[in-house]
Write a structure and sequence with these properties.
Blueprint (H helix, E strand, L loop, with lengths): L1 H10 L5 H12 L9 E3 L4 H16 L3 E4 L5 E5 L9 E6 L2 E5 L5 H15 L4 H4 L10 E2 L2 E2 L5 E6 L12 H6 L3 H6 L11 H7 L21 E7 L4 H5 L3 E7 L1 E10 L3 E2 L11 H18 L6 E10 L5 E2 L2 E10 L2 H22 L2 E10 L3 E2 L2 H13 L4 E6 L5 H4 L5 E6 L15 H18 L3
Parallel strand pairs: 4-8, 4-9, 9-19, 10-18
Antiparallel strand pairs: 1-5, 2-3, 3-8, 6-7, 10-17, 10-19, 11-15, 11-16, 12-14, 13-15
Helix pairs in contact: 2-4, 2-14, 4-14, 10-11, 12-14
The structure holds glyoxylic acid (GLV) and manganese (II) ion (MN) (3 copies).
């Protein structure tokens, strides 16, 4: 019978799936491209409006809202042992060009809804009177967490504007290198990071970003709800994925320079075509990735720009941005090294200059915390939801939060695994399941 209280608790977790869907739809209208696509770039007008929308929902949920100088947003529900390190959950709402409305968003709006779910379990102590409620920390008004709960909306998980992924969480995790780089980082329009941040109302007087850094132990745990962005859960008909590890990403920027010239007048033997060097490197990326021998190694040339970009002009400059990932860091690093060797040798044989080969980031993978995995598994079981342990092939703010806090992630299925494109979709039912597991896992962890 000691469990009947917990059973009451579990059965009274009720997600307002319709309102949550309405919020997801509403947030998706803050976009620079037409529906169904979503484009929401850091510190743009639409991003600022979307941030206001999130802060408003946090306030309506009774959270006290705070922002740091780069615009990470924190909404806190103070627990009854407020001196303990809080427990945090959250994700991002920025969206890469022409993407969908669920990536990140489910983990922010879903986190606020999880708080609403927990806050609305106020009546339970009446019908559970006399049962063991000591464990659950109810007061006469309902559930109140022991540890404070905090919802975090991270600034710029996506690298779109300034080329660096997980900007907000990387800084929270204490990246001195990033804090320094951002002092001189500019976007493709030559707008500096600081000016962009200021135009959005952040980084007003400061020009030292180290105040963003979190001390280790600031949070007792960090938990992120996210769409899977892969096909496994949907294919298997499994409701919940519990992440055990996040694959290790690396990003590279490469520039070649040649002499360019007239597309008719310069004969082939006289050319040093920067565009062809880029094309050859793109194919070399594919080859090195395939040569790893593992399906877990992936590589993408997502940006390839030619200058001056005219049909009758031999490209005099080319620019590539390369993303490569693996669950095995060593194997990923070998690929990075081989890409570098190829860039050097292609430049040599084609007579172009390799004017830049820059490793933007080369991050190690992160492991989830056993206790958090177990709490999420127990929550899924108690909610009668099928679940499986899996790795995350996409990166997330959790990759960096893991540096300062025990970390875990909850995945929900998404249509055909589609993500980073407008067809991205997750059903209301699956989202509601994810929010329930999140709420129950938070409730459990808030007691630890
Ligand atoms: C970011 O969203 C990524 O995983 O590429
Ligand atoms: Mn994404
Ligand atoms: Mn995401
Ligand atoms: Mn991601």
């Amino acid at each position: 019978e000691s469990n009947s209280f917990a059973t009451d608790f579990v059965s009274s977790l009720s997600v307002d799936a319709l309102t949550l869907q309405k919020q997801i739809d509403e947030l998706s209208t803050f976009s620079d491209t037409p529906a169904p696509s979503v484009t929401r770039i850091l510190y743009s007008e639409k991003d600022v409006l979307a941030r206001r929308y999130i802060k408003n929902l946090m306030t309506l949920a009774g959270l006290s809202v705070r922002e740091d100088i780069v615009g990470n947003i924190f909404g806190r529900w103070t627990g009854h042992e407020a001196e303990l390190a809080p427990l945090a959950t959250g994700s991002h709402i920025d969206a890469i060009p022409y993407s969908g409305k669920y990536d990140g968003v489910v983990g922010v709006l879903g986190a606020i809804e999880a708080i609403n779910v927990l806050k609305s379990i106020w009546y339970i102590d009446q019908f559970s009177f006399g049962l063991s409620c000591a464990d659950w920390n109810f007061n006469r008004y309902g559930f109140k967490p022991k540890r404070s709960l905090e919802v975090i909306m991270f600034t710029s998980e996506e690298p779109t504007r300034f080329g660096i992924s997980c900007l907000g969480s990387r800084l929270l995790a204490g990246s001195e290198a990033l804090a320094k780089d951002l002092m001189s980082t500019v976007d493709s329009q030559n707008i500096s990071f600081l000016d962009a941040a200021r135009s959005a109302g952040y980084a007003k007087e400061q020009d030292d970003l180290s105040s963003v850094f979190l001390k280790k132990g600031s949070y007792s745990a960090f938990l992120e709800l996210h769409i899977e962005q892969g096909p496994i859960l949907e294919e298997e008909g499994t409701s919940i994925g519990i992440v055990t590890a996040i694959a290790a990403p690396a990003s590279l920027k490469v520039d070649f320079e040649g002499n360019g010239g007239h597309a008719g007048a310069v004969l082939m033997p006289k050319r040093n075509d920067a565009g062809l060097a880029a094309a050859e490197l793109a194919l070399a990326v594919e080859k090195h990735v395939l040569d790893s021998g593992s399906v877990d190694t992936v590589g993408t040339v997502g940006i390839l720009e030619l200058h001056p970009g005219a049909i009758n002009s031999i490209p005099s400059k080319s620019h590539l941005e390369i993303d490569t990932r693996d669950i095995d860091e060593k194997r990923r690093n070998i690929v990075v090294e081989k890409i570098h060797q190829s860039a050097v040798s292609i430049a040599k044989t084609r007579g172009v200059v390799l004017s830049e080969f820059k490793i933007i980031n080369q991050d190690p993978p992160a492991l989830s915390e056993k206790l958090i995995i177990e709490a999420a598994e127990a929550a899924s079981k108690e909610l009668n939801l099928t679940h499986k342990l899996m790795i995350s092939r996409a990166y997330h703010d959790s990759l960096f939060m893991a540096r300062v806090s025990p970390m875990g992630m909850i995945f929900i299925p998404c249509y055909k695994g589609y993500s980073h494109k407008p067809e991205e979709y997750a059903s209301g039912q699956d989202i509601a399941n994810g929010v329930k597991v999140l709420a129950l896992t938070l409730a459990k962890l808030s007691l630890q």
